[in-house]
UniProtKB/TrEMBL annotation:
Family: Belongs to the ribose 5-phosphate isomerase family.
Binding site for substrate: 32-35, 85-88, 98-101, 125
Active site: 107
Gene Ontology MF term list: ribose-5-phosphate isomerase activity
Pathways involved: Carbohydrate degradation; pentose phosphate pathway; D-ribose 5-phosphate from D-ribulose 5-phosphate (non-oxidative stage): step 1/1
The UniProt record lists the keyword Isomerase: yes
Name assigned to this protein: Ribose-5-phosphate isomerase A
Phylogenetic classification of the source organism: Bacteria, Pseudomonadati, Pseudomonadota, Gammaproteobacteria, Oceanospirillales
Role: Catalyzes the reversible conversion of ribose-5-phosphate to ribulose 5-phosphate.
Length: 234
């Protein structure tokens, strides 16, 4: 199976997984990226059977609207039934690196009000140690160089994602060369740098459930059964 087929398969699995939540009052949080796009396209078959969605990017909002799914401003919504999104890396604790598509800040905001976060990924995203994928950090443009110098002091090699402006009007630094073992602590440390809007580590709010597409089918991993099942995944 190609990576794209695995993404499609896991998106369908996510829909099956959240099916009991699809009810007339449900508002679903929707992530960004190619895996999330497959999920949106699958979700479209239930259009009209749930209240609507909150989008984690302008691109996702646009795709939802194309399927005639109502998109709510997050300020109008107190909580979400579930948040479904992809990831760039995931470890056994279901801590993630996200932001390859540049939507990390809104993704983290939307995930923060979800009752449950279902991460959908193909097996290439599963890692022992986070950091092989360069960690995206969203920065206020005037602080870009100052933040970059601080990231170097923390042991990273930040590269400016030139030509990319986030939906919030900010810049992105992709930090290479990290081996992130204490993800919660590192997430907090990065967020404390003045000029950082947020970083792509989802450790303080990891995924609750991981649906991982593998050549043997989609595997379901939750925080509770992580250690028991980890051997099957890595
Ligand atoms: O965090 C993200 C976007 O900001 C995506 O979830 C992540 O980049 C994975 O993307 P894809 O599903 O295209 O592999």
């Amino acid at each position: 199976m190609t990576q794209d087929e695995l993404k499609q398969q896991v998106a369908q699995a996510a829909l099956d997984y959240i099916k009991p939540e699809i009810q007339s009052d449900a508002i679903i949080g929707v992530g960004t990226g190619s895996t999330a796009n497959y999920f949106i396209d699958a979700l479209a078959q239930y259009q009209g059977q749930f209240k609507g969605a909150v989008a984690s990017s302008e691109a996702t909002a646009e795709r939802l609207k194309q399927h005639h799914i109502d998109v709510f401003d997050m300020n109008e919504v107190e909580s979400l039934t579930v948040y479904v999104d992809g990831a760039d890396e995931v470890n056994k604790q279901l801590e993630l690196i996200k932001g390859g598509g540049g939507a990390l800040t809104r993704e983290k905001i939307v995930a923060s009000i979800a009752k449950s976060f279902v991460c959908i990924a193909d097996e290439s995203k599963a890692v022992e140690v986070l950091g092989g994928f360069a960690l995206p950090v969203e920065v206020i443009p005037m602080a870009r160089a100052a933040v970059a110098r601080k990231l170097v002091k923390l042991g990273g090699q930040p590269i400016y994602r030139e030509g990319v402006v986030t939906d919030n009007g900010n810049d992105i630094l992709d930090v290479h060369g990290l081996k992130i073992t204490e993800a919660k602590q590192f997430e907090a440390e990065l967020n404390a740098i003045v000029g950082v809007v947020t970083n792509g580590l989802f450790a303080q709010r990891p995924a609750d459930v991981l649906l991982l597409a593998t050549s043997e089918g989609v595997k379901t991993l939750s925080v509770i059964n992580t250690s028991a099942s980890a051997g099957e995944f890595y």
